[in-house]
Design goal:
The complex is a heterodimer.
Chain A: H1 4-17, H2 23-51, E1 54-56, E2 60-62, H3 64-90, H4 99-118, H5 122-140, H6 146-179, H7 190-196, H8 204-222, H9 230-237, H10 240-269, H11 271-294, H12 299-320, H13 322-354, H14 365-368, H15 370-383, H16 390-404, H17 408-433, H18 448-466, H19 470-483
Chain B: H1 3-28, H2 32-56, H3 61-88, H4 100-124, H5 129-148, H6 152-174, H7 179-207
Helix pairs in contact in B: 1-2, 1-4, 1-5, 2-3, 2-6, 3-7, 4-5, 5-6, 6-7
The chains are: A mainly alpha, B mainly alpha.
Chain lengths: 484, 220
């Protein structure tokens, strides 16, 4: 039952939350349920950690890789929940329709992501990933403005088409597995596929084609260039905590699916093709996104492009491979989610004060909003990969892997892209921070829950930057062992 | 050979042709209601094929999948689509960027392309190349509908057609995925259609049109 409880509890809470008509009680109830859910997740995680692998029934399974991503999801969810409690109070009544719907959808979104991490089966994984799109689409369009509706529409269409291709390749993999002699009822299970993968080499061409579809399909959801066009829209138009959730939790969820399928396909047809493809998409995403970051005008779009950049880095880490590259990639996915959450949290306050997210219209932020500006600077330093924060360490690992595996061109590309990204962020941030504020309206201060949420991210990033704790490093090694 | 087996074999042998006819007709259709009817017809052909193969290969479990197709794709989804299209009260025109004749021509070309593409795989895995080509052609037609029709509802239909193709590909290659997975996929599809309905109404309320090609606020 250890796996069923954390999976089903968010679903139950989502239904219960719809019953709270009073916004205040809805917020409190959501906080309470969130805490219970995280405790359940923690208990489940502890069990996975002790037993190594936990299998329940035919369809639920958790191993080292699920554990790492579940820790990530749990952490982000707590912070988002804490931040939302304060955020909802700032939002003017007309813009925010109903907090119970907001929280119910948020819990539903959580449920779909947990389902993705706990599924033992490729088909169920696909269903869960598609369900993440469905659960979050209404959250993306929550403000019901023209932009939000367009973004929600685009998100639903693009991600579903992308994911449909992933379904096609799931079928191809299933076909290859069934033809190599695996009984049809079990031919979609991870474990069965991982052990049987070397025997599927006969379907070499089919698997190659399938992997291209996998990268295109799940890559749409991850935000690889050129399938990324939904991502900046959705991130920019969603409420700030949801942007954080999309960038930090959803992208990692799709990346998790890609990692699993990459491991299976690499075993079956050798890693050179699969990893070559990942490196190609990684480089493309990295370069295009940093170049587009220069010309952005909206703060949230800038951050969204930075997410594409970092997903590209993760793909490069996996693609370069080796223990160092994979370790770096997993750590980077984790670090990026923390840093990006922190940065997206600042945007709520910025919008609240200046009534816009257009960076060319924001001046003198440092004086108008000292704390938020400080967070923006710290988050900016973290996200461009400067010490003493976690992203520095993970990017260094990936670069080291690139050099040690003689991928010099990739390493040079990465360094170039990092410098461009640094320049773009520094330019935009410094322009917003400097100058005289144009009569900034004195609005409500940040609430304690918001400050706590932001600080939690910062502290975690700092710890990971100074020294990866031994326990966490062990978790990462467990996750890597699953993939190799 | 009994009459049932004979009918089943005939259905299997001719269903690819019927599927090709439906995609060509969808390409030629000018009204959304016609497209919905043709989509339903396509689902009916697929259902007939599933039932036929259930009889022919004596696998009663497949009949459950056929029942799912009937419930979700033949009844629920067309009903929702028709309701949306009626309640929208906008013109029925699909507002295509190609004329019907051009569309039919393009879809015919896509069918030929599908036949060419699937040959090596059909040979390697000893599969029925006609059905596989039909599945591929349906997928390609769905994609073509999505890029060439501007009405929001037509994009939904395009994606549903595309999904039909994927479902057919799964069925012809592997005799369908495990039942739990199929059910999950159908459930996702149904929720997706409902959500798209919500968004179509919101688009009409805020933009006062349902022409998706005119949604261009967000750029860069």
């Amino acid at each position: 039952m250890t796996l069923w409880f954390p999976l089903l509890f968010p679903l139950v809470s989502a239904c219960l939350l719809l019953g709270f008509k009073n916004p205040r009680t809805a917020v409190r109830a959501a906080l309470g349920m969130g805490i219970i859910e995280v405790l359940l997740l923690g208990f489940c995680g502890w069990n996975v950690w002790v037993h190594g692998v936990l299998q329940q029934g035919k369809y639920l399974r958790a191993d080292g890789l699920s554990l790492l991503f579940l820790i990530n999801l749990g952490l982000i969810f707590v912070v988002v929940l804490g931040y939302s409690a304060g955020y909802l109070k700032h939002i003017p009544k007309g813009r925010f329709s109903s907090s119970r719907w907001y929280y119910a959808l948020l819990f539903l979104f959580l449920f779909t992501m947990i389902a993705a991490y706990l599924s033992a089966n490729l088909g169920i994984l696909w269903i869960a990933i598609e369900a993440t799109t469905l659960a979050s689409a209404l959250l993306v369009g929550f403000y019901n403005t023209k932009g939000a509706i367009e973004a929600g529409w685009k998100y639903l269409i693009m991600c579903t088409v992308g994911i449909a291709f992933a379904l096609l390749c799931t079928i191809a993999l299933y076909l290859a597995a069934v033809r190599s002699g695996i009984p049809a009822g079990r031919a979609l299970d991870w474990t069965v596929l991982m052990t049987a993968a070397p025997g599927m080499a006969a379907a070499h061409d089919l698997l190659k084609l399938a992997f291209v579809f996998i990268v295109v399909g799940y890559g749409t959801k991850i935000g690889f260039v050129p399938m990324h066009s939904w991502l900046p829209d959705a991130h920019a138009e969603a409420p700030a905590p949801i942007s954080a959730m999309l960038s930090a939790a959803l992208l990692n969820c799709a990346m998790y699916a890609l990692l699993r399928l990459d491991a299976i396909t690499s075993r079956a047809i050798g890693a050179s093709f699969t990893h070559g493809l990942l490196i190609t998409f990684g480089c493309l995403s990295l370069l295009v996104s940093v170049l587009l970051m220069i010309v952005q005008r909206n703060l949230k779009r800038l951050l969204a492009y930075s997410s594409i950049e970092h997903m590209g880095v993760v793909a490069l880490g996996v693609g370069i491979g080796g223990p160092l590259g994979l370790f770096g990639a997993l750590l980077h996915a984790f670090n990026h989610s923390l840093a990006k959450t922190m940065l997206f949290f600042t945007t709520g306050k910025v919008r609240d004060t200046f009534d816009t997210l257009r960076m060319d219209r924001i001046r003198g932020m440092a004086r108008a909003l000292p704390f938020t500006s400080g967070v923006l600077i710290v988050g900016g330093i973290a996200i461009v990969g400067l010490p003493p924060f976690g992203l520095f360490v993970s990017e260094l690992f990936i670069l080291m892997a690139a050099f040690s595996r003689h991928q010099y061109l990739v390493a040079v590309l990465m360094l170039t892209a990092f410098s461009i990204g640094f320049g773009a962020l520094a330019f935009h941030f410094l322009r917003m921070l400097s100058g005289e504020p144009q009569a900034a309206p004195g609005k409500a201060k940040l609430l304690a829950s918001e400050v706590a949420a932001i600080c939690a991210c910062g502290v975690c990033l700092l710890i990971l930057g100074l020294h990866v704790p031994l326990v966490f490093s062990a978790v990462l090694h467990h996750a890597m062992a699953v993939l190799q | 050979m009994g009459l049932v087996e004979f009918a089943a074999a005939k259905t299997l042998a001719s269903s690819a042709v019927f599927l090709f006819i439906t995609v060509l007709l969808i390409a030629a259709a000018r009204r959304t209601a016609t497209c919905i009817a043709l989509f339903t017809a396509q689902c009916l052909v697929i259902m007939a094929q599933i039932i036929a193969s259930a009889f022919l290969y004596h696998s009663s479990g497949v009949l459950l999948v056929a029942a799912l197709v009937l419930l979700v794709k033949v009844l629920a989804i067309p009903y929702v689509l028709l309701r949306i299209s009626r309640r929208l009260k906008v013109s029925q025109n699909v507002s295509a960027s190609t004329t019907p004749a051009q569309s039919v021509f393009i879809v015919a070309a896509l069918i030929l392309l599908a036949f060419a593409v699937v040959q090596p795989y059909a040979r390697a895995f000893a599969l029925d190349s006609e059905m596989l080509a039909a599945a591929t052609a349906i997928i390609l037609t769905g994609g073509f509908l999505m890029v060439s029709r501007k009405k929001a509802l037509m994009q939904v239909i395009g994606l549903l057609v595309l999904e039909n193709g994927i479902f057919l590909a799964a069925f012809t290659t592997t005799f369908g995925m495990p039942l739990v997975v199929e059910m999950g996929i159908f459930f996702d599809l149904l929720i997706w259609v409902l959500l798209m309905g919500v968004f179509i109404f919101r688009i009409r309320e805020t933009f006062e049109h349902v022409d998706v090609s005119r949604l261009r606020q967000l750029r860069g």
